[in-house]
Amino acid sequence: MIRRTAVAVALASTSALARTPPARASARSGGAAQTIARMTAHYHDPALEQQNRAFALLYLRTTEGMRDASSAGEFSDPGFWDRRVIPAFADYYLSAYDAWRRSARDEVAPAWRIAFGAPASGLTCTQLLYLGVNAHVNNDLSFVIEDLGPRYRYPDHRHVDDVLVHRTRPVVYPEIQRHLCPELFSETVPADADRDILAWRQLAWDNSRLLLEAGTSRARVALAASIRRHAHDKADEILAWNRPRGL
Question: Are strands 188-189 and 2-3 parallel, antiparallel or unpaired?
């Protein structure tokens, strides 16, 4: 373990989830602007649980960074990113949280159940953030890319890493520290935790190719279940970061 002085960003399956793909992201005419309005309302919702506030703010600022990058022409098809990519990815998160709030647990992937239900008093803020990032990247991202189809291109996918590090990181972590987590920059994490996020994003791309190339529905269901198990396993690893050895 190392003392954290800077934080870098990147984001067992139930039988019901294993049998069916995630719900398709709903179409939203307002694009990134409407998505950010929804996420702003979500973050300011008085009923939002304490353990979920830090990730809600992280993802809100990340979405704003993606909007700004798209507006600046940093992606190959800015209109597609504004109208489809940004809303689609956010919808997976907001839909999972809505199902959680409705107690529709069978509609919520295991990694999200762990993230949403984590005990705020027993974990560090960094753990809570990583639980959300793990669920959104390891559990959701490959399915989002599959949904978006061939207009979602690998060079754009890789550019997101730069946006996360250079647009989001300088803004959101100091804000989280100021308003939610005073001890954020002194918390300890595994030495490779930050690098893991970028590796998770690459794995999500690779898994999206496998989903698209699955020859049968049975093969796709098995792969989808494997993706969710991996996200669940990573969530368990994050929960164990500050657990004494042997416990």
Answer: antiparallel
